[in-house]
């Protein structure tokens, strides 16, 4: 299981798992094409699988402050990646966006009972730190 950061360099994403908070942080930036999504998806699924295999019901924090509104095609592909990722954990996901337009797109495309969209990282972290409501 990889615990340090993965990516960013030439890539437009970074994955970083913090065992202390049990949060997998995903940072995405820039305007993506459909050809960029498979590398992100592969790295994310590998990390999520490793955490699942270690018996961790981890939370996810997506920092997308430098990730502008994407094409419908990329937005749909990213939605599929997020949906697939929920199979690896019973934890919650907080998505932080940089604009109200991004928030609207995220709320339209990322619909899941364990996911919330925020405009500030501190609010997202507070939500993840709070006890999850019981079904």
Task: Provide a concise account of the structure shown.
It is built from four helices and six strands; from the N terminus they run βββαβαβαβα. It has 135 residues and is of the alpha/beta class.
Walkthrough of the structure:
The protein has 135 residues and is an alpha/beta fold. 37% of the residues lie in helices and 24% in strands.
| Architecture (CATH level 2) name | 2-Layer Sandwich
Strand order within the widest beta sheet: 1-2-3-4-5-6
Multimerization status: single chain
Low-pLDDT stretches: 1-6
Structural class: alpha/beta
CATH class placement: Alpha Beta
As a percent range, the share of strand residues is 15-25%
> Looking at CATH, which topology would you report?
Transcription Regulator spoIIAA
Mean pLDDT: 90
Element pattern in H and E: EEEHEHEHEH
What general form does the structure show? Answer: globular
Distance between the termini: 30 Å
Number of domains: 1
> Percentage of helical residues?
25-40%
Number of helices: 4
Largest sheet: 6 strands, mixed
Considering the chains and any ligands shown, give keywords for the structure.
6 strands, globular, 4 helices, alpha/beta, Transcription Regulator spoIIAA, six-stranded mixed sheet, disordered N terminus, 135 residues
């Amino acid at each position: 299981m990889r615990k340090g950061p993965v990516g960013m360099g030439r890539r437009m994403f970074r994955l970083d798992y913090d065992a202390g908070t049990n949060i997998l942080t995903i940072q995405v930036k820039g305007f993506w094409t459909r050809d960029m999504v498979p590398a992100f998806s592969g790295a994310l699924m590998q990390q999520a699988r490793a955490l699942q295999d270690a018996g961790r019901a981890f939370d996810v924090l997506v920092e997308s402050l430098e990730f502008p509104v994407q094409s419908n095609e990329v937005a749909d592909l990213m939605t599929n990646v997020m949906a697939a990722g929920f199979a690896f954990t019973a934890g919650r996901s907080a998505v932080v966006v940089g604009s109200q337009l991004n928030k609207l797109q995220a709320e339209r495309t990322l619909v899941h009972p364990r996911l919330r969209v925020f405009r500030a990282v501190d609010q997202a972290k507070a939500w993840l730190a709070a006890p999850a409501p019981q079904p």
